[in-house]
Design goal:
alpha+beta; 7 strands; elongated
Length: 168
C-alpha cells in the first residue's frame, strides 16, 4: 500500500513542476513580446506628437474668430456652441470650426448658404445629401468652406457644423 501512495505523490509533484514551468514560460514570452510591442508603439507615436506640436489652438467661445468671413449669413440670434481656431505653425494655414443649432428648415438654410457662396465668388464643389446629412463645400482663391447640416436627435434643431480653411 505504501508503494501506491508514493506513485500518486510523485505524479502530483510532477504535475506541479510542469504547471510552474508553463507559468514561467508564459510570463517570459509575455514580457518579451510586450516589450517589443511597446517599442514599436513608441516609434509609431513620435511623428504624431511632432505634428500636434506644430498646431496652435484657440477657443473663441460663442463668437467667430477674426479670420472667419464677416458677411457669413448667420441667423439673427445665433449662439455658437463651438468656435475654435487652429493654425499650423509650419504652413501658416488657419482652420476655423464653428457649430450652432438652427430652428429654420433645411431647405431655407440650403438656399441661404448657396446664395451666400454664389454672391461672394465662391465655387460650390459639393452640394449633396447623404442620409440625414446635407453637405455644401465651396472654394474661393485660398479659402475652403464646408457646411454640414443634420437633425439633432435631442430635439435642439438642425445642427450646423462649419469648417473654414484659409491657406497662406
Amino acid at each position: 500500500m505504501s508503494e501506491v501512495t508514493i506513485v500518486k505523490k510523485s505524479n502530483k509533484i510532477l504535475l506541479w513542476i510542469v504547471l510552474i514551468v508553463i507559468v514561467v514560460a508564459v510570463a517570459l514570452v509575455s514580457y518579451f513580446y510586450g516589450k517589443q510591442i511597446g517599442t514599436k508603439q513608441k516609434i509609431a507615436a513620435t511623428p504624431l506628437e511632432k505634428t500636434r506640436a506644430s498646431i496652435e489652438r484657440w477657443d473663441y467661445g460663442t463668437v467667430p474668430p477674426e479670420v472667419f468671413p464677416k458677411n457669413f449669413p448667420f441667423e439673427s440670434g445665433t449662439r455658437l456652441i463651438a468656435s475654435l481656431k487652429s493654425q499650423d505653425k509650419n504652413t501658416g494655414d488657419i482652420t476655423v470650426q464653428l457649430a450652432y443649432y438652427s430652428k429654420k428648415d433645411i431647405g431655407t438654410l440650403i438656399n441661404t448658404f448657396r446664395n451666400y457662396f454664389t454672391s461672394n465668388n465662391w465655387v460650390i464643389t459639393t452640394d449633396t445629401a447623404t442620409g440625414e446629412i446635407y453637405s455644401l463645400y465651396a472654394k474661393r482663391s485660398k479659402e475652403d468652406m464646408n457646411i454640414l447640416m443634420r437633425f439633432d436627435p435631442t430635439g435642439l434643431g438642425l445642427k450646423i457644423d462649419i469648417t473654414y480653411l484659409l491657406r497662406k
